[in-house]
Hints:
The protein is an alpha/beta fold. Helix content is 39%, strand content 18%. It has one domain (4-140, 166-204): 2-enoyl-CoA Hydratase, Chain A, domain 1 (Alpha-Beta Complex), CATH 3.90.226.10. Strands 1-2-3-5-7-10 form a 6-stranded mixed beta sheet, sandwiched between helices. Strands 4-6-8-9 form a 4-stranded mixed beta sheet. Helix 1 links the parallel strand 2 (12-17) and strand 3 (47-52). The mean pLDDT is 93.
Amino acid sequence: MARVKLEKTGNVFTLTMDAGENRWNTALVDELMAALDEVEGCDGAAALVTTAASEKFYSNGLDLDWRNSPADHPEAGDPKAFFFMEFMARMITLPVPTIAAVNGHAFGAGFMFALCHDYRIMREDRGYMCANEIQLGMIIPAAELSLFRHKLPANVFYESVQLARRWGGPHALEAGVVNDIATTDELLTKAQAKADELAPLAINRKQFGIQKENIFGENSILNDTNGAAFHLRTKARYPK
Length: 240
């Protein structure tokens, strides 16, 4: 069963995750990578919207059952081939505009994925964004922390990663976690309209991608430090 569906209307690709709670495992990452291949393989104006088939979950984080007992979940893929951080590095530097239509909970890795987009629109009446690792007795990996640090205001970063604050739509908008909010019925249409507006930026595909690398890559201009994409690509450098 396919976990990801990719459709294109005009210049806008819409990627729908359809794996229940959309928990992160090798099988999901592999399908998402293939979808990005198709998006990057096109020419001219283009933009990508991501959303979920579930009305409750955009993505509910890592597939912990699989991580704890991979032999019991062979359909989720080989844990040794779980190139999750590398996927996030690719997503945050994708050379086309990206818009997350967050239509349900985005917890842990799901929150991280939403932050990799250029623009985020969240359901206004239900659902939270939350880095809940500390509540689960886990430490957020350094590479992931770098992404949060580069994408969130300092006070919001601390409340998110250390205090596991749950951001509902209106508060997420106020805090700068998302760029806009919408009703359930309007969310996807609004995201696709924004994608269509931004799609011409991808005509200059090379320049659009290089500028993302300048922001999030090895020679990041942010705080004169290495950027989030660099840390994600080089996760082995950092102690767990």
